Amino acid sequence: MAWTRSIFALLGALSVAATAPGPAAAQTAAPTLNMAVGAPVTSLDPHFHQLSPNNAVAAMIFDRLINTDGQARMQPGLAESWTAIAPDVWEFKLRRGVRFHNGNEFTAEDVVFTFQRVPNVPNSPSSFAAFVRPIRNVEVVDSHTLRITTNGPYPLLPQDMTNLYILDRETHQGVTTEDFNAGRAAIGTGPYRMVSHRMGDRIEFERNEQYFGERPAFARVNYRMITNDSARTAALLAGDVEFIDQVPTADLARLRQDQRLAMSEVTGLRLIYLAFDHHRDDASPFVTDAEGRPIPRNPLRDLRVRRALSMAIDRQAIVDRVMEGAGTPSAQFFPPGIFSFIPDFPAQRPDAEGARRLLAEAGFPQGFRITLHGPNDRYPNDGRVIQAIGQMWTRIGVRTAVEAQPWTTFVARAGRGEFSAFLIGWGSNPEGSHPLRNLIATQDRERGWGASNRGRYSNRAIDAQLEQALREIDDARREQLLIAAQRAAFEDVAIVPLYIQTNIWAMRRNLQHASRADELTRAQDIRPR
Amino acid sequence: MTVYLLRRISQSFLVLVAMSMIVFVGVYAVGDPVEILISPDADQMERERAIQALGLDLPLWEQYGVFVWRALHGDLGRSFVYNEPALQLILQKMPATLELAFGSMFISVLIGLPLGMYAGLKPDSAGSKVIMAGSILGFSLPTFWVGLMLIMVFAVQLGWLPSTGRGETAHFLGLQWSFLTANGLSHLVMPAINLALFKISLVIRLTRSGVRETMLMDYVKFARAKGLSPARVTFVHVFKNILIPVVTVVGLELGSTIAFSVVTESVFAWPGMGKLIIDSINVLDRPVIVAYLMIIVLMFITINLIVDLLYSALDPRVRLEGKA
């Protein structure tokens, strides 16, 4: 019976190890921070690929004229102040005495150089060019003052500047993306300097002791990429890393109970919503009547139907059961506290009775059939959320088939308008015009509107309000316009907001983290407790 | 012989061409890389610029033509995602995968051979039954699950081994290897065992059946009758003869281990080619997918060719020129 005893001994050891606090060594802060992120950083060139993981690393090495805090509010970065001295002219006062990691001084010329490089990065799969396109002229008043003239009044210029990382004219003349990846050109003004980079595996940093802003707590950072969710959690539990992002919701309950760990959470800026086919007047491809026969007209064009479909959804139940609490039911793009949040506009409460009545009024007392599409590898629990919604819709008589597919296939088909109804997400800039322009505005190539309006919603009144807001320099007036436009869009059920995702990080108990609504995971936000 | 070689090489070339075409059309059919790579808030102008920058505005046959032209000049294209030559990206990741593959082969032979011999020599003992039952587990447990369990037990609960990653590396022949440092070796152990599990079972079963067959052979009986010690019979007469099929199978397995260690590499965050290819498939990074598959095809073709040549050298009954 020796083997039985040894297995019991093993089990006993396991349970002790699971409940006992970690080894003493883990309790004191080491000078090196080991952290792991869930999404691979694909380039250290800050202008090559507009992608959150790349931006997070860029925000460690480089600075922007205007930085953002955890709540996505603008903070002075390399610019100390900025004012609109005319509706189409902005003056930026730059910070003096800032040096790049190689000792070069930061001046206005570097900003001009950056603006020139941004639209000219070869082979970029998603460039930052849109942020400099509104700029007509840049005037260097003195070494630390800039005047930027835009094409017409452009209130979003400061917001755009929170996306552009500033390079050095002397250092970065003619450098390529490969030079950044190899580390030769990864030289900025930011709180960390890059020491080594192994593509898709890890980046090592050391603190920039000359940083003009708040000094980061850790002198060295080992920034690892562990894309597999379970492996990332295991690395934290095993003590190989002290900090992880994108905590899988399946592990949340367990990690919250673990005495050795602490969590950091914040309601983000990513809304998960449903979009409808607004485009077709006649039959929509995945809608049939209750018996499965084609319907000659598209029921989703009827406001009462859209409202009924929204009312049928129990958002709180989805957040609680499917998302393990990692979300907030919402009826709009933003959580409270963000510019152009609509006050007194609470999330829709579930009302199956009311939904059935609306359907009957719209001429569908027997309901109809629909297929709800969605990705199954893009957002946390996306495939399960559409299943839940399918059941809720079926309960009000809209017999729903659910089809989840990989993002690669899904997003191309959604973009071609092949679906009748689908789930998708949107991460906003903290300014109402951003989601309005991309998701709600009528598609218009010339103006660059509606590029992600995959349901082809179109409402001229909202377009007009947005147009006006985009030329309004006064923040208070612009906010009112944006609130009115958003309210109109949601009352017309242009899209069906479901919930805003919660961003969650997990760390050893001896650390604390300043959470960020924009999902970026940066070492300078982490300190010993 | 020369004719045979030429024929093989031209066949291989055809396979390569077919492969690249299939991948080109396949990725084209799955979706649009720009839709996946581009920032969601990019406007129509920016989308068109990106499509042009990646050369996706040309008709498919023209894109393929450009690819072939460049490939003939030794350039398999640049990764859409990393903006680095695809071939270079893959070769950078190759040492990590190679050492993982060789590590797992080593483990599987080290463990599989003795256990298989034991099970073959004493087929009725309790130990043999345990070994054979265990080998069934090795065949049937899914790799990712075993990998996670290994991490949970040895890294999370016991804390003996690091959970993921490659650890420290040392320079050797101009490349980075982690089996040369203690830290790197400790990182290598678990993924190598995970990858070896299936092969251990394979080697056990091959060895066992080989031993059982050989033990009944006349030359073994004769050796015994000569009065040789059991140890000499086992380790010289039996062992040598069972080694031939084992070596053949292990050699062929090596190819598939190098090519398809995807699951293990992603569970253990092992920065090898498998992880690269899965990341590339997720974002439809066509140049990397094409280059990877071409390298793998080339590798299999080479291994098969070597095996065929070796057979003809070892076994005079196999003729290469003969009409197959």
From TrEMBL, chain A:
Every Solute-binding protein family domain range: 74-436
Main location: periplasm
Signal sequence extent: 1-20
Record key words, sorted: Signal, Transport
Location in or out of the cell: Periplasm
CDD domains: PBP2_NikA_DppA_OppA_like_2 (cd08498)
SUPFAM superfamilies: Periplasmic binding protein-like II (SSF53850)
Family designation: Belongs to the bacterial solute-binding protein 5 family.
Name of the protein in question: ABC transporter substrate-binding protein
Organism: Sediminicoccus rosea
UniProtKB/TrEMBL annotation, chain B:
Subcellular location: Cell membrane
Keyword field: Cell membrane, Membrane, Transmembrane, Transmembrane helix, Transport
Record has Membrane as a keyword: yes
Residues of the ABC transmembrane type-1 domain: 94-307
Keyword hit for Phosphoprotein: no
SUPFAM superfamilies: MetI-like
Name of the protein this chain belongs to: ABC transporter permease
